[in-house]
Amino acid sequence: MISLFFLIISMGSFMLMLLVLGIQVKCFHEIITIGYRVYHSYDLPWFRTLSWYFLLCVNYFFYGETVADYFATFVQREEQLQFLIRYHRFISFALYLAGFCMFVLSLVKKHYRLQFYMFAWTHVTLLITVTQSHLVIQNLFEGMIWFLVPISSVICNDITAYLFGFFFGRTPLIKLSPKKTWEGFIGGFFSTVVFGFTAAYVLSKYQYFVCPVEYRSDVNSFVTECEPSELFQLQSYSLPPFLKAVLRQETVSLYPFQIHSIALSTFASLIGPFGGFFASGFKRAFKIKDFANTIPGHGGIMDRFDCQYLMATFVHVYITSFIRGPNPSKVLQQLLVLQPEQQLNIYKTLKTHLTEKGILQPTLKV
After folding, report:
1. Which of 42, 45, 89, 299 sits most deeply, having the most CB atoms within 10 A of its CB?
2. CB–CB of 174/195 below 8 Å?
């Protein structure tokens, strides 16, 4: 599985997006199937059809938003796409309303309560799978490093917590997972922080991993070429007094992203496992061992990715709160789709602003 993952990484960001979409669909299928079996929903009219229909609608909405944000120059050349993007939210809402009406029409007197149970089950499943996978792809567009470091940190924590627990575990951590121990939890934390810090240093050296993923219409493909931001350029930092005595040097050179990686690794090791505990509680509630048997000996896809969805949300919030600033490329794409009169007004306003700040010389009147 690890070898396959590395192969997909080498094939580029588009293949990673397809991988995320495939995992999302499979996780949705596993959770919906559990509801179908647990509640004995075999006789419910249209239940499975409507569940997949709602999955299609929500994906259409989220991925349509992504196309509008990141493929503006491509959309500008296609008249059919322009119509779909312009009225995207209305079309998405109309599609959802159609599903909502079909659900109401499918209500049967003897199954009212069960049908509403399953309607809520479907929507919570959509929230867990589709929304989170959309955030994963949003993180990926910020640069592959924002995708790889969090995911690998969760995997590292899972492995090292197991090893520390296996060899040194004595104190139970939580009743939901009797095999989890405090020794494994603490050992996994320190190991994950060291791993994340090291992985951040290695990946920060390469444009392929640090540059935002952008669609280039001239080559009709995704590209990861840029001048790395200050986040991925070596900076000198003064060491605290006690470290100066130990290391016998005044400063150390680090990539700023390495400092951010500590926050990501800390979340992956301290909060991320609660996604797994939540999944354990869910399975205990419905008296099942695994979500599915997709991976022999490891259960379903959801069993492997229960912590990743929680991590994806944190990374997205972290980026929008502490990292992301105005994106010149995105602003330019939005300007290019405006009418010529609107573009001219913006040009005049920007020129006046830059002249007032002394960046441009005033135009001499003849």
Report:
1. 299
2. no
pTM of the model: 0.86
**pLDDT computed for residue 100 by the predictor:** 97
Task: Check pLDDT > 90 for residue 44.
Answer: no
Q: Which of 138, 152, 149, 153 is nearest to 213 (CA)?
A: 138
CA distance 71 to 353: 29
- How many CA within 13 A on the CB side of residue 190? 7
Residue recorded with tokens 């999944």: 279
- 343/148 Cα distance (integer angstroms): 38
Which residue is listed with tokens 């079909």? 102
Angle in degrees, CA 304, 172, 301, rounded to 5: 5
Separation between Cα atoms, residue 48 and residue 103, nearest integer Å: 11
Task: Write out pLDDT tens, residues 170-187.
Answer: 999 988 888 899 999 999
Residues 126, 53: Cα–Cα separation, whole Å: 11
Torsion sign across C-alpha atoms 15, 20, 22, 23:
positive
Burial 172-206 (b: 16+ CB within 10 A, else e): ebeebbeebbbbbbbbbbebbbebbbebbeebbee
For CA atoms 186, 191, 194, 195, give the dihedral sign.
Answer: negative
Q: Tell me the pLDDT tens digit for each residue of 318-341.
A: 999 998 766 666 677 678 778 889
Q: Where are the domains of the chain?
A: 1-44+108-325, 330-365
CA quadruple 282, 33, 136, 69: dihedral positive or negative? negative
Strand 221-223 relative to strand 214-216, pairing? antiparallel
The DSSP output letter for 230 is G
Average pLDDT, the chain: 87
pLDDT score of 285 more than 70: yes
Dihedral angle over CA of 71, 72, 77, 83, nearest 10: 100
Q: Distance between CA 346 and CA 342 in Å, rounded?
A: 6
Q: Mean of the pLDDT values across residues 120-136?
A: 93
Supply φ then ψ for residue 78, to 5 degrees: -115, 115
